[in-house]
Amino acid sequence: MATLHDAMLSVLTDAVSRSVGQQAATLKGEKRSGLRVHARTGLPCPVCGDTVREVSFADKSFQYCPTCQTGGRVLADRRLSRLLK
């Protein structure tokens, strides 16, 4: 639990420090600059080089690195999986 707390504190502190003094119009771009795999589907992960994947669920989607975030497990895309049954 302490490791999770430390990671969350680090991410939030970094995000706040990058946002201080920014105009409202630039905040979204600044937020994205701190994300490693957001909007990088199909590109190499900047940490390990594995391909960034995307999962769609309902009307949302997210990107992730299988190596860094799921221990090498590729997650099922719910939209496509439902059609293949």
UniProtKB/TrEMBL annotation:
MF-aspect GO terms: DNA-(apurinic or apyrimidinic site) endonuclease activity; hydrolase activity, hydrolyzing N-glycosyl compounds; zinc ion binding
Keywords, comma-separated and alphabetical: Metal-binding, Zinc, Zinc-finger
SUPFAM superfamilies assigned: Glucocorticoid receptor-like (DNA-binding domain)
Cited InterPro entries: Znf_DNA_glyclase/AP_lyase (IPR000214), Znf_FPG/IleRS (IPR010663)
Key word Zinc present: yes
GO terms, biological process: base-excision repair
UniProt-recorded name of the protein: FPG-type domain-containing protein
Organism of this sequence: Mycolicibacterium monacense
